[in-house]
């Protein structure tokens, strides 16, 4: 039986006990060890999750439709999403690139990034970085 039970607060309804535990349990174990010398084992800590009870199974959010690639608007929105997708595929081998067979890439985005998209990407990456432009 767990000695400590972690209960999430608001805003974690799409998480889960395992994901929450991955982030919280190591910090909790370190804090208790540093503060008291007590070493908690994996069995000493459990995460209670209840966020899923607020949503019907198979839904994404209250009142928000299940958007897909057909809801993306041409221009800035399509360019930015494609740039994020390409950046994710370039850094994570588990992410399929938008131009790979079988993907549902956003049509008409194979052009140089606009200044607005480049600025938005730079803002996400932080100071001292700049977005790379691409051509189709």
List the helices and strands and how they pair.
Elements: E1 4-7, H1 17-36, E2 45-48, H2 76-91, H3 115-125
Helix pairs in contact: 2-3
Question: Please, could you describe this protein's structure?
Answer:
The chain has helices at 17-36, 76-91, 115-125; strands at residues 4-7, 45-48. The model is unreliable at 129-136 (pLDDT under 50). It has a two-stranded parallel ribbon. The N and C termini lie far apart (57 Å). Helices cover 35% and strands 6% of the residues.
Poorly predicted ranges: 129-136
Identify the strand order in the major beta sheet: 1-2
Can you give the helix content as a percent range? 25-40%
* DSSP strand tally: 2
Give the quaternary arrangement of the chains.
single chain
Please tell me what the overall shape is. elongated
Report how far apart the termini are: 57 Å
SS summary, helix count: 3
In short:
By secondary structure, the chain is mainly alpha-helical. α2 crosses α3. It is elongated.
């Amino acid at each position: 039986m767990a000695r400590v039970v972690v209960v999430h607060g608001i805003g974690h309804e799409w998480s889960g006990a395992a994901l929450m535990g991955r982030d919280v349990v190591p910090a909790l174990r370190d804090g208790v060890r540093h503060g008291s010398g007590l070493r908690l084992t994996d069995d000493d800590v459990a995460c209670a999750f209840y966020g899923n009870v607020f949503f019907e199974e198979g839904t994404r959010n209250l009142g928000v439709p299940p958007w897909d690639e057909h809801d993306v608007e041409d221009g800035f929105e399509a360019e930015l999403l494609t740039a994020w997708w390409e950046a994710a595929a370039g850094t994570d081998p588990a992410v399929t690139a938008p131009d790979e067979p079988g993907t549902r890439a956003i049509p008409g985005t194979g052009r140089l990034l606009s200044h607005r998209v480049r600025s938005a990407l730079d803002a996400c990456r932080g100071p001292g970085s700049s977005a790379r432009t691409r051509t189709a």
